[in-house]
Amino acid sequence: MTVKTFNLPDLGEGLPEAEIVSWLVAEGDMVKVDQPMLSVETAKAVVEVPAPYSGRITRIHAPDGTILPTHSPLVDIDTSGGVATAATPAAKAAPAAPAAPAAAEAPTGDERQDSGTVVGKMMTSDEVLEDADIAGRGRRRTAGRAKAAPAVRALAKRLGVALENCRPTGRHDRIVPDDVRAAAGSAAPAVRQAPKIKLPPGKPEQLRGPRRAMAQAMSAARDHVSQCTIFDDADIHYWAHGQDITARLLRAIAAGCRAEPALNGFFDGENMSRQLETRVDIAIAVDTPDGLIVPVIRDVGQKSPQELREDLNAIKKATRDRSVKPEDMRDFTFTLSNFGMMAGRYATPVVVPPTIAILGAGGLRHDVVPVMGGIETHRRIPLSLTFDHRCATGGEACRFLAAVIDDLQRHS
Q1: Are residues 150 and 52 located together in one domain of the fold?
Q2: Which of 94, 262, 279, 360 is the 20 to 30 Å CA partner of 2?
Q3: Range(s) of the domain holding residue 85
Q4: Which of 113, 144, 173 is the last residue of a domain?
Q5: Which residue blocks in 198-342 are alpha helix, DSSP H?
Q6: What is the CA radius of gyration of the chain?
Q7: 134, 216 in Cβ contact below 8 A?
Q8: Quick one: pLDDT band at residue 170, thresholds 50, 70, 90?
Q9: Is residue 106 domain-shared with residue 134, that is, in the same domain?
Q10: Long-range contacts made by residues 216-220, C-beta under 8 angstroms, separation at least 24?
């Protein structure tokens, strides 16, 4: 018997874990290459994981509802009697992490362990990511720097190990968990220490899916970003009839990025480097019963108002249906929070690293404004711009916001 253990793959978002929603197969079932085996929920998307080999399911390591670390044992497949062929030539093998204490015993004899190969049509994550803490916010590193996945970076941070001191043994000179532990002088698996917080009597609910991702993202923002917010208003009293407010906000952000590029891109605080972008890919926070989901509208500066509205309608539907793809929620260069559609005038929106800035738009108000010879009542949009003061100056932020306001105050 030839048994191969397939590990939970990195689903292309640089996430340290994922939740098993439901198994589509059972122990004893026969599967074929690329046949969907289970549904997995990552930070904000539900995706199907296909079978990497043809064979018989001999063991399922984690039941429905389990939150499983990436590269942990997922399923054992007996491939004897058939050819154990990976699903697609383009699939890449990621280094396997040591099994957690509750995982299956190490295979013996003819049993072999798969290294967490990403197969079928899923996104691979052999890319080296720039940020270790934010789900789906990865960027490629430049040559000559330490190469490690986000989970490995998080492990190194917990153990107090500098990645530069690790000897890489993974593919393409990539640092894997064992390299970090070797540098720390311990081969024992690292245990994530939970904060010691005592809750009052009751039944606590574990955060899952989007809410869990939000908690992780906000913790990283708290720890790694120097947040600074400025406020102002855009007078839209003279707008032509029928203007699309969200599309106008997107266009205005693109205008701000052209006027002041310093807020459009990414900042690597660990290496004190920034990566400014010419394209403007804007993530829009969408409120759902499960929490905030943040799909991305690409290349905003090159699209007409009609094209922007079509994109907005499409991502809104995909988000509500939970059909938005993982690749449609990462690598954005700027964020818009249009919270004023529900309530609120000003806010302090939070920058999610590695991005540099986020613009919040509050609810429209009729304000009394001074004009030559008297006063008038004008409609105005309250604006709140938060930026990472580590890499952007107050002057750059003010110039950006001034350009946004100037574009919003145009007639059409």
Answers
A1: no
A2: 94
A3: 3-113
A4: 113
A5: 209-224, 245-259, 305-320
A6: 24
A7: yes
A8: confident
A9: no
A10: 216/43, 216/133, 216/134, 216/135, 217/133, 217/134, 217/135, 217/352, 218/350, 219/133, 220/131, 220/133, 220/134, 220/352, 220/353
Q: Is residue 144 part of a domain?
A: yes
Note whether 331 and 138 are within 8 A (CB). Answer: yes
> Within 10 Å of residue 73's Cβ, how many Cβ atoms?
27
pLDDT in tens, 243-296: 999 999 999 999 999 999 999 999 998 888 999 999 999 999 877 777 678 889
Count, in order, helices (H) and strands (E) of the chain: 6, 20
Question: CA separation (Å) from 271 to 32, 133, 164?
Answer: 45, 15, 12
Instruction: Tell me, yes or no, whether 358 and 217 share the same domain.
Output: yes
Same domain flag for 341 and 255: yes
Residues 97 and 149 in one domain: no
Tell whether the model's pLDDT for residue 313 goes beyond 80.
Answer: yes
What's 158's domain CATH number?
Answer: 4.10.320.10
Q: Domain check: are 175 and 247 in the same one?
A: no
The CATH code of the domain that includes 44 is: 2.40.50.100
* The pLDDT value given to residue 260: 95
| 374-388 and 296-297 strand pairing | unpaired
Q: What percent of the chain has pLDDT over 90?
A: 33
Dihedral sign (CA 135, 17, 39, 87): positive
224 phi, psi to nearest 5 deg: -120, -5
Percentage of residues in the chain having pLDDT higher than 70: 78
Cα(16)–Cα(152) distance, rounded to whole angstroms? 9
Distance CA 393, CA 13 (A): 30
The alpha carbon of 370 is separated from its chain's Cα centroid by a whole number of angstroms, namely: 44
Question: Is the pLDDT score of 159 beyond 90?
Answer: no
Residue at 362 is within a domain: yes
Which of 107-121, 149-163, 174-188, 328-342 is the most confident on average?
A: 328-342
Residue position matching structure tokens 């799909």: 295
Q: Whole-angstrom Cα distance, residue 1 to residue 151?
A: 33
Q: What is the C-alpha to C-alpha distance for residues 9 and 17, in angstroms, rounded to an integer?
A: 10
Domains in the chain: how many in total?
A: 3
